[in-house]
Amino acid sequence: MKNLIIICLTLIIFSCKSETKEVESNYDNISALVLKDAILAGGQLIRIDSFSSKNITARPVDVWLPENYSSEKKYAVLYMHDGQNLFDATTTWNQQEWMIDEVATKLMKDEITKNFIVVGIHNIPAIRWQDLYPEKAMNFLSKEDKDKMYKEAAKNNARTNLFGDEYLKFIIEELKPYIDATYAVYTNKENTFVAGSSMGGLMSMYAVAEYPEVFAGAACVSTHWVGGSPKENNPLPDAVFKYLESNLPSAENHKMYFDYGNKTLDQFYPQYAPRVDSIFLKNDYTSENFKNLFFEGTDHSELSWQRRVSIPLTFLLKK
């Protein structure tokens, strides 16, 4: 278990790459630069090195534009968490990546999905859990469980203040308006999606639940239902599920994708699959707008996610 927790913690560590060419922006105080030396299968990667915010700690944001991007067209937008691990394995801590540019380029070239851009929000490792935990789920913990959690945190000198709601405000009130004003994108819900893995999976689910009028769907890959480190008598999964039951996005106009493996950290997720299925299927979701897929023998890594990311992208963005 100790080694597994270490793996869990190290998976949040990412690195970045330098930028070179400046890009014009409609926001005078935001400097966006083309990463000319990024190793991509296609398209162009643009970085805002430090996107300032009134809501959360400033951080880099990457924008990937597909091949032949044109201001004469309109594109859907996919917002993704842990942005520094999406595109270029030569810059990541573990030399792994999602290969989003490779997969997205092929999907659009084959006319499987609509045209879209990807906005990758970098994490800050020291506060990643605080940024990506569904903050309002804590309201569904009993007082006893809350007190116990805070005592354990104090004993381990761990932070307990959460920024999940502020993180979403950053996306909705600060980042999305910038993207909408700067790039040739559709601004409506039907063309706005969110995706992530692990804690990013939890936050993607939370984003649609909190802002169903903004996001049409989410891809929640290797969703970290345990909420923190795996342990016995963990109250966090039940709190998250109770939150979800009370805030489920309408099945009429949303798509929700979940998946999980059964190796390394993913081994703790299969036990929650029946409850996920129950919540959605009892509330009018069908195979047309809900997936909860199991991938036998897959672990909790970018190598696993890159091999199947075409599935959620096709599910959400299919023409």
Map the helices and strands.
Layout: H1 2-10, E1 21-23, E2 32-34, E3 44-51, E4 59-65, E5 76-81, H2 100-109, E6 116-121, H3 128-132, H4 143-155, H5 164-182, E7 192-197, H6 199-210, E8 217-221, H7 236-246, E9 255-260, H8 273-281, E10 290-294, H9 302-308, H10 310-317
Parallel strand pairs: 5-6, 5-7, 7-8, 8-9, 9-10
Antiparallel strand pairs: 1-2, 2-3, 3-4, 4-6
Structure, explained:
- The chain has 319 residues and is an alpha/beta fold.
- It has a single domain, classed as Alpha/Beta hydrolase fold, catalytic domain (Rossmann fold, 3-Layer(aba) Sandwich).
- 32% of the residues lie in helices and 17% in strands.
- It has helices at residues 2-10, 100-109, 128-132, 143-155, 164-182, 199-210, 236-246, 273-281, 302-308, 310-317, and strands at residues 21-23, 32-34, 44-51, 59-65, 76-81, 116-121, 192-197, 217-221, 255-260, 290-294.
- The protein has a ten-stranded mixed beta sheet, sandwiched between helices.
- Helix 2 links the parallel strand 5 and strand 6.
- It starts with a helix and ends with a helix.
